[in-house]
Amino acid sequence: MDVTMGPEEIDAVSAVLRSGWLSMGPETLRFEEEFARFLGVPSALAVANGTVALHLAYLALGLGPGDEVLCPALTFVATANAILYTGARPVLVDVAGPHDLNMSPEDASRKLTSRTRAVLVVHYAGYPCAMDHFCALAREHRLHLIEDVAHAPGGRHRSVEGAKMLGTLGDAGCFSFFANKNMTTGEGGLVVARDLDSAAKARRARSHGMTTLTWDRHRGHSFTYDVTGLGYNYRLDEIRAALGLVQLQKLPAANAQRRELTRRYREKLQDPPGLILPFTAHPLEDSACHLFPVVLPAGADRAGLMAALAEKGIQTSIHYPPIHRFSYYQELWPPDFDHGLPQTEDLTARLVTLPLFPTMTGDQQDAVVAAVRGFF
Ligand SMILES: Cc1ncc(COP(=O)(O)O)c(C=O)c1O
């Protein structure tokens, strides 16, 4: 993975440092406005990272003890951790299958109980979930629908109503700008909420539960504040917001590069026997192509493949060890609890993520392809 910061990012950060105003100021407001415009929504809330974006969304929607939230087993642990922060419980849902690593709507429906209050979807690797199904499920059972868009800024979902930006289909959309994401601020995140009340709750909880902010007071808009609920310090600073503004401008071109590299991988990795390239049924132009995961044939020596590539200087990774395999999560359920995750269980040992980053050259990609083919 390569992180590319150009002179534009360095200039933007330097300007903030020279300005002397380092947190909750004009850059953060501008970043929120630009991101909202990018998504086509009225407002957005910049926060410290993607994990707290999820926490704020869950809080704003009123999730708490006694509630169950359907969420994929195959995701980064933060998705589920943030559910636990609220006192609610994650209920782990299987993936659709080796060709579609997103959450299965059928399994989500099977796992509904009288306590289910919300569904959390992750647009895994940048590919849109089956949102027609999840929106219908949420409507029918009066559930909140939250999108974890950490992998998919700039991705779209297409339906008969047209294309919509990922993150704008549910009650809330949560983005991460961690260093390995399609756009980055080092650490950073953002939440969008569909209704004004949830957006206002998330905004207050971001900043200690305070009713007015430093920036408002600085501009003379108010002199004091009240605290109307338990809040946190989940703010993004001006330095990162300035970085985010530049990265947001570069996102469409970077995503286009990722799509082209994905197209090329698909073309060149067709023949190894038994190798599955997931998501080929998803239109590439709607994906943010964050990752290029492959599914190895059952019984394949994954560690051997990863070691063979590492020897050639090629870094691979695994997205992800599933949530229910972590010791901490195993303690949350009785030892013999069956989560009913046959597809996730099957795929867990077979997933490998190949390198994919916008500045990857054709030669670099050809070297990865040759190493994978060589192994097979
Ligand atoms: C799917 C998913 N959800 C949530 C997060 C959490 O984001 P952050 O690292 O910004 O807290 C990440 C990534 O890091 C992620 O990949």
Structural class: alpha/beta
Indicate the CATH topology of the largest domain: Aspartate Aminotransferase, domain 2
Largest sheet: 7 strands, mixed
| Mean pLDDT over all positions | 96
* SSE order: HHEHEHEEEHEHEEEEEHHHEHHHEH
In short:
The chain has 376 residues and is of the alpha/beta class.
Topology:
Layout: H1 7-19, H2 26-39, E1 45-47, H3 50-60, E2 68-72, H4 77-85, E3 89-93, E4 95-97, E5 100-103, H5 105-110, E6 116-122, H6 131-141, E7 144-148, E8 156-159, E9 162-165, E10 172-176, E11 189-193, H7 196-206, H8 214-218, H9 238-268, E12 292-295, H10 302-311, H11 327-330, H12 342-348, E13 351-354, H13 362-375
Parallel strand pairs: 2-3, 2-6, 6-7, 7-10
Antiparallel strand pairs: 1-11, 4-5, 8-9, 10-11, 12-13
